[in-house]
Amino acid sequence: MTAALLGFAVAAGLALTGVAVVAPPQAIAATTTPAPTGWLHTSGGTILDSNNAPYTIKAASWFGMETPDCMPHGLWGTLTIDDALANIKSMGFNTVRLPFSNECLAAASIKGNLNYWANRAYALEGKTPLVLMDTVIARAKANGLKIILDRHRPSSADQSPLWYTSAYPESKWIADWKMLATRYKNDPTVIGADLHNEPAGAATWGGAAATDWQAASTRGGNAVLASNPNLLIIIEGIENQGNGTSTWWGGGLADVKNKPVTLATPNRVVYSPHDYPASLYAQKWFSDPNYPNNLPAVWDANWGYLQKQGIAPVLLGEFGTALQTTSDKQWMAKIVSYLGTNAMSFAYWSFNPNSGITGGLVQADWRTPETAKLTALAPILKGTPSPAPTASPTPTASPTVSPSPTATASPSPTASPAPTASPAPTTGGPISAVWKLGSSWTGGYVANIEVTGLRAASSWSVSWPDPNVTRVANSWGISCTVVPKVSVTCSGADWATKIAAGQRLSVGLQVDSLKAPVNPVLTLK
Asked: For the chain: N or C, fewer Cβ within 10 A?
């Protein structure tokens, strides 16, 4: 019998004899730890929950709302918002880093061809990107995930090395952050504001006001906290540091030691560098004879010291790789070890498979996990529970799908302009068709095909030349084959197998090809 049980037994015996007994403290009131509120704060080099328990942010970036599409990518097929979020949760992540552009926040409509039928449970047709953001946040909450909002770009077309441009001045940057902070003020699903993605080029830490990212972060952070004092303020580094060294865009935080960001609301600053392997750019440390064992010292000097010395927590805001080369695999193993050893928070780039240089956590079908990457990340993903996600309706058919992804390779993504549609042939089969390029990037493109029935047909097909094609990675409403570096042929499939006279179908595909064809001549059957 334990001492506690023995004490209760003695007390019970004394009570039976009429002797007054004072109950032991644990019998009066059992102390319980209150449920965390969801809001986070910092202390020294540690992120803490509302009960002051250490908390590690384990995020995956799901991009698209910062591109001309103004929607998270992948939603042009049968993927639903819940499908994506449940998959992210099942991998072991607890947070989604959600990039956006100021242009998309102001847009009156979602620009990309979101599959409203597959995502009909969310009633998004005719809604704005801001309402779509509301929906992603609400579904993240339902799936047990947190959200970090990432101001990735001012306009949707280009990354900006400074936090402002002539079209989007600092006043707009601050006004939009205040709007978002107020909009989600009562929702602890949104835990952080990543003020500006990858300051680079002329950006400085101190110095002239026009380039001083440290001062701008202070102004921006204070403005956000004035609207919602519970948010973490996530501050990235700069490319060219005061000590004369250069690193990744957003990656340099060596100057913080002498000039930290101090906000009116204490215990809210989290510093967030970005770091990538040699496949993105041959930084000088990749050619060091001691590589990869030299990497921890590089990270210590640029940003790791902040958490190690208890100055502030670090959230590695972007890191990722296609994991194809020996050098990349060595880098990945080292950075995972570094994060785990130092209990650092992180955000992996990216969930999306259409990140041109790094690829994603899922394959081109947007569902199948990239097991090699998840195995490499396993040491820092372990320990995150994966409760059953909230299911979304799964439609049996997707009658109208018009995909339009924009490839984003971090850093410095560049979208390719869409050429004009090819003219519809007047003869050659039971259909007419128009081939439209949704978007393209180095290594691939997405095309949408608008098909009209000239007469009823039980089958139909479209072919076009593509001298750079290697394979069709994904398709909807069609089944496709390729003759490598010659042509692509697609036939109606699933809900689009047959076509009636006058019926219009919208189908599409994602193609691996070095360069997208321009106005290809279609052969119709």
From this structure: N
* Continuous segment of H or E residues that includes residue 14: helix 3-16
Token pair for 221? 């952070």
Q: Alpha-carbon distance 411 to 161, whole Å?
A: 11
Q: Whole-prediction pTM value? A: 0.74
Active site positions, annotated? 198, 318
DSSP-assigned states of every residue in 459-522: --EEEEE-TTEEEEEEEESEEEEEETTTEEEEEE-GGGSSB-TT-EEEEEEEEEESS--SSPPP
Is pLDDT at 358 greater than 70 in this prediction? yes
b/e sequence 344-381, b meaning 16+ C-beta within 10 Å: bbbbbbbbbbbbbbbbbbbebebbeebeebeebbeebb
- The bridge status of strand 269-272 relative to strand 232-236 is parallel
474: pLDDT confidence band, cut at 50, 70 and 90?
Answer: confident
Average pLDDT of span 490-511 = 86
Q: How confident is the model at residue 33 (pLDDT cuts 50, 70, 90)?
A: confident
Least confident of 266-275, 347-356, 425-434: 425-434
Query: Residue 31: what pLDDT?
Result: 62
How far apart CA 38 and CA 30 sit, in angstroms, is: 24
Q: How far is CA 15 from the centre of its chain?
A: 63
- pLDDT the model gives residue 502: 84
E strand intervals along 302-411: 315-316, 345-348
Name residues whose C-beta falls within 8 Å of residue 73's C-beta, 6 or more positions apart in sequence.
62, 63, 64, 67, 112, 352, 354, 405, 406, 408
Alpha-carbon distances of 6 from 10, 15, 86, rounded to whole Å: 6, 14, 49
CB atoms near residue 451 (< 10 Å): 25
